[in-house]
């Protein structure tokens, strides 16, 4: 016997992409994610392409994945997609130490993050 399959959590006009264990702090990642929330998918990709933040390229990968999921898996129109959600979560934290003077040690924290991007197809009435 197998488990019953899960029902789809997103609406019919939505597609999602999740990127896990990104090597950046959630606070820095949320700054980049905030710049694309609510924008059209094409303009969000352009903004991430020319962003000076290092992590913007990884966010762009996740956004392109969400757009591809919308097109290929859910048959949504790419030209009418907007970034409905771009949420950031806390991942694991690697703890390291650095030796300091006089035999002491200082802690170093290396945080990881999770990124979830949901794109939604706008209704035709909203386009006008």
List keywords for this structure.
three-stranded antiparallel beta sheet, 3 strands, single chain, 128 residues, alpha+beta, flat, Ribosomal Protein L22, Chain A
Provide the succession of SSEs.
Answer: EHHHEEH
- Strand % is 35-45%
Give the oligomeric state: single chain
User: Biggest sheet: strands side by side, in what order?
Assistant: 1-3-2
Low-confidence stretches: none
The average pLDDT is 95
Could you explain how this protein is built, in words?
- The protein has 128 residues and is of the alpha+beta class.
- The protein has a single domain (14-121), classed as Ribosomal protein L22/L17 (Ribosomal Protein L22, Chain A, Alpha-Beta Complex).
- Helix content is 32%, strand content 35%.
- The protein has 4 helices and 3 strands.
- It has helices spanning 26-36, 41-49, 56-72, 124-127; strands at 14-22, 81-99, 105-121.
- A hairpin with a 5-residue loop joins strand 2 (81-99) and strand 3 (105-121).
- The protein is flat.
- The model has no long low-confidence stretch (mean pLDDT 95).
SSE layout:
Elements (H helix, E strand, L loop, with lengths): L13 E9 L3 H11 L4 H9 L6 H17 L8 E19 L5 E17 L2 H4 L1
Antiparallel strand pairs: 1-3, 2-3
